[in-house]
Amino acid sequence: MTNLRIAIKNSRKLEFFMKRVGMFFVMFLLLAFFSVSQVFAHTPLLSCYDNGDGTITCEGGYSDGTAGAGVKMRVVDKSDKDLMTGKMNEDSEFTVKKPNVPYTVIFDAGPGHACKVKGEDITE
């Protein structure tokens, strides 16, 4: 009878231990899932080219394949003064007249989601 009581007591301890291990494992999996999803968060991408007709076109989006349609676009001079502003069209493109002064194009999707291309790096 004593052995039976010990066996029952040990099985209850084992059951309690297994429940705790199971909860820890589930919490670990959830933490790992959400941590990995942050690694694969979308990063803004911007590519601009000179059309050869006095205009430039920029294509924007995100590294996860999300389109950049509707994202605010800015063309600024060296002092960060806006020369032109607008938004990406439904094809995630932004076409503007090429400025006659040094400039930078900014894909501005908010804090942490901005991307810049200097005018000197935009070629045909």
Give the topology, please.
Blueprint: H1 2-39, E1 44-50, E2 55-62, E3 72-76, E4 82-87, E5 93-97, E6 104-108, E7 114-118
Antiparallel strand pairs: 1-2, 2-5, 3-4, 3-6, 6-7
Q: Approximately how much helix is present in the residues?
A: 25-40%
N-to-C CA distance: 90 Å
Q: Major sheet: size, sense and barrel closure?
A: 4 strands, antiparallel
CATH class of the largest domain: Mainly Beta
CATH architectural category of the largest domain: Sandwich
If you consult CATH, what is the topology of the largest domain? Immunoglobulin-like
Q: How would you spell out the order of helices and strands?
A: HEEEEEEE
- What's the structural domain tally? 2
The total count of strands amounts to 7
The value of Rg in angstroms is 28 Å
Structural class: alpha+beta
Name the overall outline. elongated
- Summed over residues and divided by their number, the pLDDT gives a mean of 81
Number of helices: 1
Given as residue ranges, the uncertain stretches (5+ residues, pLDDT < 50) are: none
* Major sheet: arrangement of strands: 4-3-6-7
Strand content: 25-35%
